[in-house]
Input
Amino acid sequence: MNQQNLAADIWNIADTLRGPFRQSEFGRVILPFAVLRRLECVLEPTKKDVLAQHETVKSSSIDLDLLLPATAKATFYNTSPFSLATLGSTSTRANLEDYVSRFSANARQVFEHFEFGKWLEKLEKANRLFLVAQKFSTFDLHPATISNHEMGLAFEHLIRKFAESANDTAGEFFTPRDVVRLVTTLIFATDHDALTGDGVIRTVYDCAAGTGGFLSTGIEQVGEWNPNARLVPYAQELNAETYAICVADKLIQGYDTKNIKLGDTLRDDQLRNERFDYCLANPPFGVKWEAVQKEVQAEHVNEGYGGRFGPGLPRVGDGSLLFLMHLLSKRKPVNAKSKGTRIGIVLSGSPLFNGGAGSGESEIRRWILENDWLEAIVALPTDLFYNTGIGTYIWVLSNNKAPERKNLVQLIDATGMHSPMPKSLGSKRKRLSDEQIAEVARMQAALVDKGVSKLFKTTEFGYRRITVERPLRIRFEATDASVASFNVATSDVHAAAMESVRGAFDSIDAVLKAAGIKKLTKAHLKELIVNMGSKDPDAQPMRDEKGNVMADPDFRQFENVPLDQDIHEYFTKDVLSHVPDAWIDESKKDDKDGHVGVVGYEINFNRYFFRYQPPRALVAIDADLKAIEDEIAGLLGEVTE
Output
C-alpha cells in the first residue's frame, strides 16, 4: 500500500461520520486515530516485553521513562494491555481513554493537543466510536510497511482533503515535497563535511513547522547522501493539531520531542537561546501580524539589534520578513567549532520590493545585503503550492559565504522549469522533477552567470532616493476683493500699505515694492499668497523671509540614484537637462551614513529577467475577432430559430 492508497482508505472512514459530524469536523476525528494506529504499529513488536517489564517494576520507584523506551525500542512506550482491536464494544470509550492515558508523556501530549477526549465523547454519543476504532485497527501502519516519508505524505494528503471539505487553507500547514527537496538541496549541498564525514551531527530548525515535512525531508536527504551523518530537528509550530502530527512523526523517527515547541514564534520564541547549523521555513504568505504587534514592536524598541527585529518592521499586512529576521537571529558564529548557518526560506514576491527607501522592508533588505548574508534567490514557477498559484521565491542565506561569493548575489529564474502534475491537487498544477531540481542546484553550485542565472554585486540592489525640488512660482493679482481679504486677515500696518496697491505682479518683490513694504513675516507671506496669489510657470520664483527660493510641493519628485553613481552627476545628466530650475534638497539625508539621499534596497526580478514579447500581428487578432463574431452569430441563430 502506498501513501495515496492509504490516505484514500483512511479518508473513506469519514463516510461513517456523516450525519452526526459536520464535514469541518472529520479531520479532527480521523487524524488522531491515524496517529494512534501509527504509534500502535510501531510499538506492536515489543508490546509483550514492555507489559512484562512494567508488571515487574510498576510497584517500585524506578523511573519508567529511563527503563521502558529501551525495551520498546522507541523513544516512547505504552503500558496498557489494550489495542484498537481489543477495546470491546461495551466499554469502548473507557478502555480507549485508559489506553491513551498509559502512553509515555511525550506521546500522550499528542492526543492532548488533538483534544482527543472531547471527540471520543462525541463519537460515543453518536454510536460511532467502536466502528471507527475497528476500522483503524485493520491498517498496517508499521514503518516496515509504510515508511516515515510515505506516512508524512499520507498525513499531508489527509489534511489537504479535510481542509478542502471544510473550505479551509490546508496549504498553510505544509510545503509540497518537490519544493522542500529543492530547498534542502540548495542548503545542504555545500556542506561537504556533513556529506562525507563519519559521525557528523548537525542541527536543523523550522520556525513554522506545520506537520514537520521540511524537517523530515531534510533528515531523509542527509541520510541518503551520508548514512553516517545525523540531523537533529528543532521546531516551533502555532497550530496544535499539526504540531501534534509533527511530534508524533519525530517520536517515531526516534528524536527527542522536547525540541519541538508549540506556540507563536513571533510572540514567544521558545528556543530563544538556541543556534542552528541549518534553518528551513515556509512561513505563511502575506499574513497580518497585528495579533503579535505589541510584542514585536516592544522587542524592536527595547532590544534593538540585540533582539530579533533590530533593522526595522515591515507593514502589518505581511509578516514574512519578521520570520526571515527571526531565522537570521538563529545563526551560529563562524569560528573553529562552527561554520556558521545556512538558511532556506520560501517567500512570496512582496518581500523583494515592498516598501521604499527608509521603510521597514527596505531597511531589512539593507541589513541583509550590507552584511553580505544573501547568497541566492530562486524564482519558482506559479501553481506549485496547494493553496495559491502566486509566484514564490526561495531565499538562500549564509553568514559564511564562500570566498568566490563574497559581495555577490545569484538570481536564478526557474519559472520556466516545471513538469505537469498527473492530477491537480488544489491550486498545485505543476511540480519540479528530480532532473529540474538537480539543474537548479547545479547552476547555483557552479555560480552560473548567463541565461536564467545571473550574478549581481550586493550594491546593485541599492539606491539613494534624492528629493528634487522646483521653485514655487506665483503671480499676484491685487484687486479690491483680494486686498480686502488680505487686510481682514492681517489687520495691521501692512493692511494700510496694501490699500493703494492694484494690478498684476509676476513676483513678490514687485508687490512689496509697490506697497513700500521692506519685509514680510512668514505668516504675512502666507496670507498674501492665499489671498492674492495663483501659480504661474512664467512668474518669478518665490523666496521666503530669509531670501531662500521656496519649493513647490506639487512639483516635488524623488529620484532613485544607483549606489554606484554620484548623485550630483546623475542629477546634472538626468534631471537638469529636462528641468533646469530644479535642485536637490540636501537636508534630506540618510539616518545611517549621513549622506544626502535616503538609502533603499529592492530586488526587482522582472527588471533583471525581462523578456520582450512582441505584440501579436494585427492579422492574427482580426482573425480571432472574426472567429468569435461568427461563433456569437451562430449561437444567436440557434436561439432565434
